[in-house]
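Predict the holo structure. Ligand: zinc ion.
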Amino acid sequence: MKITIHRGINQIGGCITEISNSETRILIDLGQNLPDGEGVVKDDFASREAIEKITQGIDAIFYTHYHGDHLGLFHYVPDNVQQYLGNVAKRVALCKHRQLSYIKGREELSAEEIAKLKKMGELSPGQSINIGDITITPYFVSHSAYDAYMFLIEAEGKKILHTGDFRGHGYLSKGLLPTIEKFILPQGKVDFLITEGTMLSRRGEKVMTENELQKEAGRIMTRYKNVFVMCSSTDMERLATFYAANKHLKRPLVCDRFQKSILEIFTESAGIRSQLFHFDKVYDFNPTNGKLVEWMSDKGFCMFVRATDKFKDYYQSLATRLDPNETVLIYSMWKEYVNYDGKHTVQRYLDFVSMFPNVEKLHTSGHASAECLANVCNLVNPTLGIIPIHSEQSDNYRKLNINDTLKGKIITTSQDIEGVEITTF
Ligand SMILES: [Zn+2]
Ligand SMILES: [Zn+2]
């Protein structure tokens, strides 16, 4: 058996892992590199030729979740390679690509993306899929993308657990350790753990739970009447945080039609199981809707926004009616995107944020803290190796609070272990 980390050993995003034996070859994720501050993506794999080459002989591709750094290159994949994504994740990705299709000059590309997405196989938690002699079983994880999975991959009597991106401090994280304990480990020992390490290079960041964040959001929203929230439009748990905080204040929750469609998908899926994800009263904003604008200026409101010209116009159409002292933008994304001197600065975000009279930063990571990573490593206790990916400093894995035997099993370079050929690029 072979494990090939095409990308991810020393970078966040652009994840591509291959697992193969003499009969079958599968990929876990086919992600695009994250853009730099100017929004430019530098990615040698981002072409039809490169993807045709890397997917040659590949039997299937399994995506852990819908973030671009895991799913981003799917549209280049030839039709003879079956691709799989969570069933709700697929709906979200389709909704997003339909939205992108309205951008001028993108019609053809969007049509191709939508056609490829529609053909994708759908994953459900706990439901195994056999590809040749490899079995893949998805298990639900909490992440800043809903319907995200870790995969248990079985081949030639060996077991690999690939975590994808996950965290231990979300509303939906309670099942993380019990899932490993009650469903994965009873099937037999895991030989290799391939796991994310995003937070290892961001260890100074305080990890607040999504619950704590909701309380803090409530405090800010009580101080300000007019609240704009800039967060990921597909991060269900974060959207629920602000939705819940706003609900207590009985103010209208407004957003655009795209965001409303995404919230409807979440209501119809996760909302069936938990009231927290039941986004039932959401208003589609339109500056010409006098009645809604009147209601918003009277009662105050919470509006989900994105850093686009449309939302700039929306804000400006409302601004004259709003008291600047009572108006705030809650910035709920990674702080580095709006750090003036950082290497991850996104100018578009900075420009957007600077329009508002008051800005409050309130965020918690979609990724596992060092403590959570250690808990997962200790519990899984793999027999042969731990391969850290999705990390700028994979070597930092050795600083985790895990025992020396496990530390000795951390793999960041190419090597053969008990007949398993591991290649890292
Ligand atoms: Zn990622
Ligand atoms: Zn992600």
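The two ends are 17 Å apart (CA to CA). The pocket of zinc ion (ligand 1) is lined by residues 13, 67, 69-70, 165, 390 (CB under 6 Å).
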